[in-house]
Amino acid sequence: MASIYDIKPAFQNLLRPGVRCLAERGVTANQITLAALGLSLLVGAALFYPGWQPGIYWAVPLTMLLRMALNAIDGMLAREHGMQSALGGILNELCDVVSDAALYLPFALLPDANLWLVVGIVIAAIISEMAGVVAVQIGASRRYDGPMGKSDRAFVFGALAVGVAAGWSGAWINWLFAALLLLLAVTILNRCRRALAEVHA
Known about the structure:
This protein is an all-alpha fold. The chain has seven helices and no strands. The longest helix is centred in the last third of the chain and has 29 residues. It comes from Methylomonas subterranea. Keywords: Membrane, Transmembrane, Transmembrane helix.
């Protein structure tokens, strides 16, 4: 199934001149990875502060976009500028999961939100990324299949944050969360099925 992840090559081409400049200045892939984590933790913590509601939610789509760029940059620095490392591989996977949790969990505090649906989304997102990584252990490639991969989740939560910041509210938000949870279940299934199919092929 299609995913926003599919447009990543075009996005990388736009970033490549800047990545080359960063490499020339001695910036490492791991530094970029940790910067993306720090940004997510900072914004996630700010979302918990009642005095900044709901305007602080305008920061979420900007953070998602910047994180997407930073994630692409760290990968390009690693692959194209000889910065791949075992530590980088660990940081890349763990920081993404922690960053997502930090940015998504505060949505559970919205007045009309169902706490357990948001918690379920965070757990399912972690499982979906684990399914992608486990594929490597069985001899397949790292799976990024949709329909609700990392980039897709960032887009949905970014759009939702814009709505929250603009003052939208209502029980409809839980229908959106339920749909996200269902799509994450499909994503987990797709990643497992395609990993197995790749190994058998």
